[in-house]
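Hey, sorry to bother you again with one of my protein questions. I've been puzzling over a protein and I'd love to understand its fold better. Take your time with it, there's no hurry, and the full record follows here:
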Amino acid sequence: MTTSAVAKPWYQAWVLIAVERLLIKIRQPKSRADELIELRRRLREELAGGADDEERALARAVHAHKLSVAAELRSISSCRSCATGQPWPRGHYDGGDCCSGVTADLFDDNELAALAHAGTRPRDLTPPRDDHAGCAFRGPRGCTLDVTHRPARCVHYHCDTLRRELHARGQLDAVEAKLAELNRAMQRFVTVHQARLDREVLAPLIEALMGGQTQLAQLVVRSPDNSITTDLSG
């Protein structure tokens, strides 16, 4: 296979990413465009990492528990008006007060890794075209992401208004039990994910140290009387 043939898929991917970023900048407010481009970049970087079968299985477990909690919250109404009357950016839209944070904070490294290894891809991160007020995916009709591609924390946040509604509906205990299961699943994923990242950081350092030991060993030779000397001739 020629060098040009190997480079061609990489070049095509780079061109597609460049076009994607241009379209985002054209279609979106600058603040949202910047956050979305950076989020997709981080997602691609995570997907290119060395996650193993265990890490992917734990990510799928987080995903399953997240969907279980989301199913309990499907019929609630509190989130539709919880931000009414609040200062900007919280009150820019009537609902989604807890969605008014910074995108990078909501999709932190652990949350993004769990999404990546459960199947989320850059094309799944589709924003609204309305005003940017908080998370890049918050719009006048709620979140534009399918729950499949939302961070686990997006079903984990419970304000007092929502808790009261769940209590009135007789769901609070069941939701809290499922949230505890989700939290445990996320903790297991984070432990394995962080251990892998630590290995990736330490691997080149260990390799460099081992290489230095090998070079030192090559300089040490034994003299005819079996004493150790240092060979500095080369």
Residues 7-202 form one domain. The helical segments are 3-27, 30-47, 53-72, 103-106, 109-116, 160-168, 172-219. The mean pLDDT is 88. The chain is about 55% helix and 5% strand.
